[in-house]
Amino acid sequence: MLTALVASDAGEIFELDGYAAVGMAGAKLAPLTVAQTRRLPFGSELMMLPDRKPVLLNIDTGKLETLHENPYDPGEMVYPVAAFNSPGYVITRISAYGETRRSQTLPLFSYGAVGWHADGFRSAVVQVDAEPRQDLRQMPRDEVIAGVERMRRQMPDNRLRAHLENCALTYGCPAGKNFFLGRYEAPLPTAQACNARCLGCLSLQQNSDIHHSQDRIAFTPSPQEIAEVALAHITQVDGSVVSFGQGCEGDPLLADHVIGPAIEQIRSQTDRGTINMNTNGSLPDRLPSLFDAGLDSIRISMNSVRKACYDAYFRPRGYGFADVLASIETALARKKFVAVNYLNCPGFSDTPAEAAALEQFLEQYPIHMIQWRNLNFDPVRYWRQMDAAASSGEPIGMEVLLKQIRQRFPNLKFGYFNPPKEKFSYHHRDH
Ligand code: SF4
Fold it and tell me: Does the pLDDT of residue 431 top 80, yes or no?
């Protein structure tokens, strides 16, 4: 078992001898073990959870305890500790805690279980993508700044370039940094509006007690501005990807009027690079013209393939889950590369009802890739929303779910990042 970690009022994190770390998935709580965890991935962050109580295992009594204060220093308040893991790692258990009357909704991060063992932090995660695309060790700030200055000279009047400067230098967006570093995938945020109201929307939170993570883009770049940024990346990076649909915008399908002409401009000058769109897939009728223009791949976000659970999270306006499925069908019929951005949360995604629905979905829609993405939303509040939407059953464990899907669909790619077209062929799935 791993030694439990707690935090003090001042946010100092320390191990609590005599207590074991505990992970939770819905109502299921169990001590963390070395076998279920791995060293905390580089670049991950540790968080203390305010106005909450850690649930730990008392090794002497063998009983789970909700701690209100430090048992070795009565009167000192202690708080739960969680890990926000680096990209490419799927969390298998949430840090175990209990809410209090003062608890407010947690900010938009994921809260993985973590403990201490043999002079190191260990995290309850499974790696699904080893590509160093967002490895902070390869993104030194001084090189990002040099790239910003270079692009500023190259395209001084380009508003999208200026927007990405703020993304890279203020928000620390890895995709924005990669544009200025000339690595892997560059972002092309374009859409000011969205026709969904996701509970965990990173760019717009209305009538909500949580703050969005970054401001939504406040203008619509022109096709020329989009093409200029995209070409600057594509022409200098081998195996490059440029992607519409970022965390600082609405949904790109609502900006197809500028995206279509931009893609045409890009493809009129080069067939290098991969043009991808991350989208909620709400408007299938807008896809054929984008594919005709040269869109290579799409990634569709969903937290569940069960309509009631999808609706409870995405809160769609003016479209339905059937439209999302129609977008997948349209792309598959056009032999485009299709990925699902699967927003997973232990305690819900690994329930029997979700697992069965996902298998049935993958049987019916031969998509090429699942990007297992940790849901950045308050887990306890999320379970409540999903329980209200549908019954799901007792969690079977994220490791079991991943193994089950892997065995049933051996050709389905697991990952985290949008692949370049040079890697598409490996993933082709027949019915
Ligand atoms: S689809 Fe994207 S932009 Fe729209 S509400 Fe959801 S997270 Fe926000």
Answer: no
